[in-house]
Write a structure and sequence with these properties.
The chain has two domains: about 60 residues, no CATH class; about 120 residues, Macroglobulin (MG2) domain (Immunoglobulin-like, Sandwich). The N and C termini lie close together (about 10 Å). The chain is an alpha+beta fold and about 190 residues long. Helix content is about 30%, strand content about 35%. The protein has two helices and nine strands. α1 crosses α2.
Amino acid sequence: MTSNYTDDFFKITKFMVLFGIVFLPVLPSSGHLYGYNVQEWKNQKENILVQFEIEPQTPAVEKNATMSFSVQNLQTGEHLKNFTETVTVIYYNSANTSSNDITYKFNASNIKNGDFSHNYVFTKGGTYEIFLRIDTPTFISVSRFTVFVSSPEFQVMNMIYLLLPIMIFAGIFVGIGIAIWRYVHKKR
C-alpha cells in the first residue's frame, strides 16, 4: 500500500516539475527587444514605439552597462529609419529634487536602422532617468526610462528583488504539491 502511495506522489511531482519547465512563463515584449527587463514608451501621435533594455538588469556602480534601444513604427513594428538620437542620463535624487543632475549627455548620432546602444558606467547608486530624443524631418519625440543602479548599500534590497519572483514561483509549486499530497492522502 505504501509503495502505490509513494509511486503516485513521485508521478505527480514529476508531472509538476515537467509542467513548470514546459510552461515557464516567458513574457516577450511586442517588438524587437525581448525579455523581462524591457521598458516601452509609446507615442501615439507620432506612431512610434521605443523599447529600452539595460544589461545587466540591475547595473552596479563603476561597472559597464549597455543601454539598448529599438525605435519602431507603432502599427507595423518595422524599424524607424534615418533619424537622429540623443541620449541623456539624469541622476534622480528623491531627497532633494532640485539637485537632479544631468550626469551625461551622449553626442547626437544618426541612426540608419532603428536599433542602437550605448555603453555607460554609472558613478553612484540610486535611480536614474534615461531620456531619448528622436529627431526626424517631421517630428521630435522624447521618451523616458528609469534605471535603478545597485551600490553596496542596496545589495540586500537587490537580493530580495531578484529572489522574490523565484520564491513566489516556488511557493506556488509547494502549495500545489501540498494540495495534491492531501488529495492523494485522503483518497487512501
